[in-house]
Amino acid sequence: MSVTIKDVAREANVSVATVSRALNGHENVAEEVRKRVLGVADRLRYSPHHAARSLSSRRTQTIGVVLPDLYGEFFSELMRGIDQVARERGLHLLVSSYHGNPEEQGAALRAMRGRVDGLLVMSPFVGERGFLEQSLSAALPAVLINSGAAEGHRTLNVDSYGGALSMMQHLLQGGHRRIAFIAGPDDNHDARERLRGYRDALERALPGTAPWVLQGDFDEASGHRAGGELLRAAQRPDAVFAANDMMALGCLFAFNQAGVAVPGQIALAGFDDIPLARYVHPGLTTMRVDIADLGGRALRALLDGNGGDPAPGPRLMVRESSGASPEAAR
Amino acid sequence: MSVTIKDVAREANVSVATVSRALNGHENVAEEVRKRVLGVADRLRYSPHHAARSLSSRRTQTIGVVLPDLYGEFFSELMRGIDQVARERGLHLLVSSYHGNPEEQGAALRAMRGRVDGLLVMSPFVGERGFLEQSLSAALPAVLINSGAAEGHRTLNVDSYGGALSMMQHLLQGGHRRIAFIAGPDDNHDARERLRGYRDALERALPGTAPWVLQGDFDEASGHRAGGELLRAAQRPDAVFAANDMMALGCLFAFNQAGVAVPGQIALAGFDDIPLARYVHPGLTTMRVDIADLGGRALRALLDGNGGDPAPGPRLMVRESSGASPEAAR
DNA sequence: CTGAAAGCGCTTACAG
DNA sequence: CTGAAAGCGCTTACAG
């Protein structure tokens, strides 16, 4: 059917061993022979059969990427960073998503056996750790991304807690006191860390103040709902801190629709710094997380066998939406 | 190192052939033996070595996905649709992006040999067709997505031309006459089709009217720039039709920043119906393209060997941004 | 229903 | 520098 190493060997009048050496750039091949082999391979449009190669070489040149989902702003950016490093190193990416289902995650992880040289796994669902550890073979190097701590595995996390503290500090410095928080899914590692940052910062700055937390699930629609809810409150907040930008945008649109001025009447802040954050009106103040960089670092950590440089912390991006509150402006 | 079929065979006191049959669900295995084998495999946490399996069975259970990029709203949605069908069929996805580089595309396509059972390729760059056709082996079934026509290969395209006609009809019916168009990259298949739709509709409805086209590149920043440019025009347009939503949003933000009312002073429309389109204020009128569905259809077409149901045409989503112009309101 | 054996297309010591 | 041969871990006719 398709052309194999044997065909090349026959045409070039050498053994398959020599063809293999020539193609793989080994030193021990006469220059003239190498050229001939490469010429024939090219003419025959030969391309090595991957499964055969990886079966005998024990290497796949492929990295497995197991994520909760393959789409959405976050995963998409993560893939971009991973993809870039993979290309630099000539690696392929075998992707798999498990949609938050622990069993599927286990299956996905196990199915990677013999298909990849290493694994990049993101498992932000707090409840899934048992399955995770169990399905991660010690034989396959793995790096966990944004999945909290994990014994025996390298990890790389966004500092969501520290980021939330920074944002709260910014809002408090702006004079805001009644700060509501739109939380992410409560089984999500980052969502929890951001909520913890909000609570701790509040407790530290204004001891005794009751946290004001609305439940969201990281998408615009839930931010939109939370925004509406806040507008109906007996006493409105000075500021709203959403656990991610998508919810902040949903909230912003709810405020816009209601004719509530941001930041004039209510200040608003998000987390992530998605591209749209700077284009909405007013520009959204947020914590910049370099997600693509996180993905790239994770892959490099996997390949280079080190722990990976710790990911740099999120950076505060001050835009108009958090502008000084009326009180602070006095 | 890791456990192989031999280990299972030894433990279960059968031959590797029997283990193979039991594991693959073949009929010709005694029930009692099957159970024993499955039990042992489970206990040993055996998982078949993929490369070995696909080398001998000639099947990889993997579909190659070659896209211009792996990130961004469009690809992300496409992956979602592909991923969903892949999961239903128990298939893995080997992804590769080529960043608009024809040579890289060729390399990516060739590197898929022996790794996948079929290929899903998106190649919207008009100039790359030669490379594409050349790197597509006849041995490997392939479906081209949004890549225009291709001899000898199945294709699935969004009807961008028809969609642009529909949107223009909507704007014209709203009474708009001076309609500017923000075009996408000129080497992009969809961008060209949408531009062609704009021109044809204009010529048909208002023969002799000069098209008003601004160059964009499908991202918010270029839409933002185009919006600014339109505001500086001696005579502003009645309506702006952007070749995709991201540019329409960039344009909307430019208008918002300048205090120009949409649709009061200028109507605005986009194309794609990305999730944000309904959340911005005013809601963005656009053509809905079900991208995830497109991806799913493409994979089904590949697997089921048929041409695939033709993708349903884009649907007009009327929201506030295209509201009747002052003239039409009279 | 089961096993021995060939074979998938490569890579890699081992000799020379 | 080169080749013959073993081996990677499976699947699948072929016998029985």
TrEMBL record, chains A, B:
Q: Where is this region: Disordered?
A: 305-330
Q: Which InterPro entries does this one have?
A: HTH_LacI (IPR000843), LacI/GalR-like_sensor (IPR046335), Lambda_DNA-bd_dom_sf (IPR010982), Peripla_BP_I (IPR028082)
- Give the protein's recorded name: LacI family DNA-binding transcriptional regulator
Q: One Pfam family from the UniProt entry?
A: Peripla_BP_3
Question: Does the record's keyword annotation contain Ion transport?
Answer: no
Domain spans labelled HTH lacI-type = 3-57
Which keywords, in A-to-Z order, does the entry hold?
A: DNA-binding, Repressor, Transcription, Transcription regulation
Gene3D superfamilies in UniProt: 3.40.50.2300, lambda repressor-like DNA-binding domains
Native species: Luteimonas endophytica
**Record's keyword annotation contains Transferase:** no
Q: Name one GO molecular function term.
A: DNA binding
